[in-house]
Design goal:
The chain has 371 residues and is an alpha+beta fold. The chain is built from 14 helices and 7 strands. The longest helix is centred in the N-terminal third of the chain and has 18 residues.
């Protein structure tokens, strides 16, 4: 586009956004902290899901100081169900840095902000442009889709190797007088008009600038690299009862689901039955021998790069004292206290099924062992 076309594009997009944007809670504030929290949540979470979490999170942690001084376990509990828990851990770490070194405020400097834990180019550009007006273009999935169609970009949108091409296009379009509003308008256009399927080109405010629309090739863009087949792992987990309490273990604070709690278990080995795997995994990870009482349920859950199918067993403690090999902590807790601990979604899917189990005291008596 030439300079005049870009100016027309900016004016049309901002006019449309002013008239039609969704009324979302993070758009009703100028607080850099609240904007930061919203952008971190929205990086991997749908808007409809994020709204309730955002409100609850800010009600408990309304500023940098309250977040920094809170226990990590409480932060993770408020994040429970959102997934991608490294986001919560990094928020907590970054808040501590801000409290200790930056006066407890979100820095009005892209360079200083991007040095904080968990702040990459997207988060930096979004927060610094929206909260402080720094002219930085935001490039997320919605923006990539918009610019790919506008410019007929043939580079795949789903690989990091081509990110610079989309960044160049977004930079060319950026309205530098109102960069925060413009970035939100670009993301909004991709979210509700220039959608992956069935885009609403007939009501698009910038359709006349779109090369894909002109060439009737909208559905051909953006280009994407074929996805690799996602593997499925078969796991087992045991809800181990000892009288009226169950055993839970805490994951290492780093890595996938770091710092969350779970029930002991692990992956099934080849030629191993799920029951035998459950007994072995409990013995290997917490040093206990158990009797399996019954199969509770099977949970299916998808992560970014793999899926799991997890068989859940009700077990009774037979012998041994807890000796951890892998987990970093453990607790024997009453069922009613499980809600105090942060669990990943794979476990919250079946925790609600446990209440009826303890009514039948047969599950707490000596059993037949693993077969």
């Amino acid at each position: 586009m030439d300079a005049r076309s870009i100016e027309t594009f900016q004016r049309q997009l901002l006019t449309w956004y002013g008239d039609h944007h969704r009324r979302l809670p993070w758009r009703e504030t100028r607080d850099p902290y609240a904007i930061w929290i919203s952008e971190v949540m929205l990086q991997q979470t749908q808007v409809a899901t994020a709204i309730a979490y955002y409100k609850r999170f800010l009600a408990r942690f309304p500023d940098v100081q309250s977040l920094a001084e809170a226990p990590l376990q409480e932060v993770l509990k408020h994040w429970e169900g959102l997934g991608y828990y490294a986001r919560a851990r990094n928020l907590h770490r970054a808040a501590r840095v801000m409290l200790d070194s930056l006066g407890g405020i979100v820095p009005n400097s892209p360079e200083a902000f991007q040095r904080l834990p968990g702040v990459g180019p997207y988060i930096c550009a979004a927060v610094q442009s929206i909260a402080f007006g720094h002219p930085l273009p935001v490039v997320d999935g919605n923006v990539k889709r918009v610019v790919a169609r506008l410019f007929l970009l043939d580079q795949p949108a789903n690989t990091s190797a081509t990110h610079s091409s989309f960044l160049t296009a977004a930079t060319e379009l950026l309205q530098t007088d109102r960069p925060g509003t413009f970035n939100q308008a670009m993301m909004e256009l991709g979210a509700i008009i220039c959608t992956p399927q069935a885009p609403q080109c007939h009501v698009c405010p910038v359709a006349t600038a779109c090369q894909a629309q002109s060439e009737q090739m909208v559905q051909a863009y953006p280009k994407r690299m074929p996805r690799r087949r996602i593997p499925t792992h078969h796991l087992v987990t045991g809800v181990v009862f000892k009288k009226d309490r169950v055993l839970i273990t805490k994951r290492n604070p780093e890595g996938l689901l770091g710092g969350l709690w779970e029930f002991p278990g692990g992956q099934i080995e080849p030629e191993e039955s799920p029951k035998m795997a459950c007994c072995r995994q409990i013995r290997d990870t917490v040093g206990l021998d158990v009797h399996i009482r019954r199969h509770l349920t099977q949970v299916k859950h998808a992560y970014t790069h793999f899926k799991i199918v997890m068989d859940v067993y009700i077990c009774a403690h037979a012998s041994g004292r807890v000796r951890l090999q892998g987990p970093v902590d453990f607790e024997w807790v009453c069922l009613r206290h499980l809600s105090r601990f942060p669990f990943s979604r794979a476990y919250t899917k079946f925790i609600s099924l446990l209440d009826p189990v303890v009514i039948d005291e047969d599950y707490l008596r000596p059993g037949l062992g693993c077969r």
